[in-house]
């Protein structure tokens, strides 16, 4: 290894150090160009309908710039919804799949990218509702998935269900619009699950890393958030159920059954002591 390095640094016209420094320079230059594209799109692109005007429902700008720092061109990426992240991932050169139900939004985004000479040859638009498109998507091992489509219940949870199993271990999952109840519940759930680790939280978005599989296989009593949110209600339900059962048996004069249930309770409490 030492001989090979020595041969390369002394025999080539450009040293190994020179090439290494140039790689860093070119990476930083490309990174700055991508960030400039993102910031310009945030300022000028308008593709979403808002009453009578067009607007841009964008993710947090710091998140888009964060993606510019960590996403690699060789990544395969997936998102529900389209907008600033679509432009960012196109500029980064990933093999990107964008699931969006509005053909008009796709046309406006294509027109904007054409106006700034940003190629979309590595972006695949799937013009369909995500709950219909994702189950049919025969692709796995995504490096990055972004949940930012329809935010009405239950869409974010359906997106998560199908996107999580298609995300590779170590892949990143972005949950946007956590100010909305659906996004907040989903992000709270993921923060409580050992299969997911929070990487970074922005103003209205959280990025998670997938550590392992298994989220979908659990019952409710193996999910910490569901247990925590259900503990009081479940305890009250059991108390009411016992009281209603006792009253029913009493009215029906099933005294033998009442005796057996009381004896069983006393026996169980005695064993626990």
Write a brief caption for the model:
52% of the residues lie in helices and 18% in strands.
Task: Provide structural commentary.
- The protein has a seven-stranded mixed beta sheet with strand order 5-4-3-6-7-9-8, with helices on both faces. A two-stranded antiparallel sheet has the order 1-2.
- The N and C termini lie far apart (69 Å).
- The protein contains ten helices and nine strands.
- The chain folds into two domains: 16-217, Rossmann fold (3-Layer(aba) Sandwich), CATH 3.40.50.150; 222-272.
- Helix 2 runs antiparallel to helix 3, helix 2 (16-44) packs antiparallel against helix 4 and helix 3 packs parallel to helix 4.
- The protein is an alpha/beta fold and 273 residues long.
- Mean pLDDT is 86; it is low at 1-13.
- Point out poorly predicted stretches: 1-13
Radius of gyration: 27 Å
Number of extended strands: 9
How many domains make up the coordinates?
Answer: 2
Question: First CA to last CA: what distance?
Answer: 69 Å
Share in β-strands: 15-25%
Number of helical regions? 10
Q: Please identify the structural class as seen in this structure.
A: alpha/beta
CATH homologous superfamily (4th level) name of the largest domain: Vaccinia Virus protein VP39
Highest-level CATH class of the largest domain: Alpha Beta
Portion in helices: 40-55%
């Amino acid at each position: 290894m030492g001989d090979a390095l020595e041969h390369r640094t002394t025999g080539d016209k450009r040293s190994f150090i020179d090439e290494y420094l140039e790689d860093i320079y070119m990476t930083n230059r490309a990174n700055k160009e991508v960030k400039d594209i993102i910031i310009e799109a945030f300022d000028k692109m308008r593709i979403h309908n808002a009453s009578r005007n067009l607007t841009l429902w964008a993710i947090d700008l710091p998140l888009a710039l964060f993606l510019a720092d960590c996403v690699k061109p060789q990544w395969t990426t997936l998102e529900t919804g389209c907008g600033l992240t679509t432009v960012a991932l196109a500029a980064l050169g990933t093999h990107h799949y964008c699931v969006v139900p509005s053909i008009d939004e796709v046309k406006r985004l294509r027109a904007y990218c054409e106006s700034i000479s940003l190629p979309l040859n590595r972006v695949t638009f799937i013009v369909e509702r995500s709950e219909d498109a994702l189950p049919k998507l025969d692709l796995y091992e995504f490096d990055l998935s972004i949940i930012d489509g329809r935010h009405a219940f239950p869409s974010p949870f359906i997106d998560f269900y199908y996107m999580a199993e298609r995300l590779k271990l170590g892949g990143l999952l972005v949950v946007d619009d956590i100010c909305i109840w659906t996004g907040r519940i989903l992000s709270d759930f993921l923060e409580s699950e050992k299969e997911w680790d929070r990487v970074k939280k922005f103003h209205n978005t959280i990025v998670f890393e997938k550590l392992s599989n298994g989220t979908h296989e659990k019952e409710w009593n193996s999910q910490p958030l569901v247990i925590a949110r259900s503990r009081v209600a479940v305890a009250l339900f059991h108390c009411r159920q016992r009281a209603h059962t006792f009253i029913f048996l009493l009215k029906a004069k099933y005294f033998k059954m009442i005796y057996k249930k009381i004896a069983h309770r006393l026996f169980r409490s005695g064993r626990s002591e």
